[in-house]
Design goal:
Elements: H1 2-7, H2 10-32, H3 42-64, H4 66-90, H5 94-117, H6 123-128
Helix pairs in contact: 2-3, 3-4, 4-5
Length: 129
């Protein structure tokens, strides 16, 4: 089936997307320090800093606990987009809003492929098709 061939490319895209997120937050942590998003409310600061750990966890979970990885990926992207959009608009922070140019399409990709990916028990069963 053609959709099964296409769906095999989801995991590399997901891993690349969450890898980019990990690198971005690692650079921010290196430049700004741990909990360095001091320009924002503490709850946003904690969330953005936690992505330094959560993003790579999603990548590892794709290999260990497949369904949990998909669920965590969806939850992270929902919160990341909503927090960045709300803070970016309220604080008129151009850098945060600019980041949404890539986050929203990636988030939509994660959302729209999650249901289909849940049909597989593991990454191995996805790749066998």
């Amino acid at each position: 089936m053609e959709s099964d061939k296409i769906i095999k490319y989801n995991q590399p895209v997901d891993c690349i997307g969450f890898g980019v997120g990990t690198i971005s937050h690692a650079i921010d942590t290196f430049r700004l320090g741990f909990l360095g998003y001091t320009f924002a409310p503490m709850v946003f600061n904690v969330f953005w800093t936690s992505l330094l750990f959560l993003d790579p966890i999603v990548i590892f979970l794709f290999f260990l606990h497949y369904h949990f990885a998909i669920l965590l990926a969806v939850i992270i992207m929902i919160f990341d987009i909503l927090i960045n959009l709300s803070y970016g608009l309220v604080a008129t922070n151009q850098n945060i809003l600019l980041g949404l140019v890539t986050q929203i399409p990636f988030g939509c990709f994660v959302f729209f492929t999650a249901k289909h990916l849940f049909g597989y028990d593991s990454l191995a069963s996805l790749l066998e098709r």
